Fold this sequence. Notes:
eight-stranded mixed beta sheet, 8 strands, 2 domains, alpha/beta, 13 helices
Amino acid sequence: MSTLTKIGIIGLGAWGQAIAKLLSNKMDVLAYARNNKKDLPYCAQTTNLNDLKDRNLVFIATPVGSFESVLKQINNLLSPEIIMWGSKGIDQSTGLLPHQIFEKTIGNDRAAGISFSGPTFSGELSEGLPSAVALASLNTKALNQVSEILKGTNIRSYQTQDVMGVELAGATKNIYAICSGIMAKKGLGENAQAAFITRALHEMANLGDSMGADKNTFYGLSGIGDLVLTSYGQASRNRSFGELIGSGKSCEDALSQINEVVEGYYTTKAIYQLAQSKGLEMPIATELYKILYDGKNINNAIKDLLDRPIPTIHKNQPA
């Protein structure tokens, strides 16, 4: 049985609310948000971060852009046993993934860090619909404790120590969800979508391999699972952003219309720069970067992808 009995949730957007509701029958839940309290009957709330001092588990439900500042506040005020986060993406100011920010800001000696990832829309979690998640950490004890808490919540958890792979997958899938939205709006058909999702996964796995991640991670929940959900789910902000781009909207107008953080827009630039620095071919991600940041015509980008040189045959290399 887990010894974790009190959870503090930082951030009361859709994700924070979903986690609070999910665990309200399992733990003593206290949620923190800087602004006004929300009408949430399933958990206590506070606008004072100091009130989370007695929490032995803290869940961060904020965008990756504010992740480091939240960790610094935790480092100064709180002492949880475990810090878990649902933040996905790459910090634009540092180029770091969440676990790298955690290691730099707090460190694994002070608290166990867990990345909570996989194909999950917050709305379905709130409704109690069945889901599966990937928990990534180097701390097996913490993984077992959190897995125990999640039992009986309509969530099945799977554990991994490949934190790099899980977080790279969680960041890059947003890029390809934008592409999927563009393709849908351009009416490119289901053949193209099938080819696209296959090659997108290939790009993700190759990037992971170049960063020391396990390629197999990309064929699991945080890879293909999250890629499919974010690319084709109707609740996907990144897909919706892509649809707006595909309909002719500018990035500025599309971002304004979504009116929420579209992580894939910012991650596209970070991944493009990373691929360039490594000399790594990521043709789909590269063409998306040119569309979003260089104003390249979408039809020309599609043509350039189709006209790429035919690859040579390599033994055991899938077509």
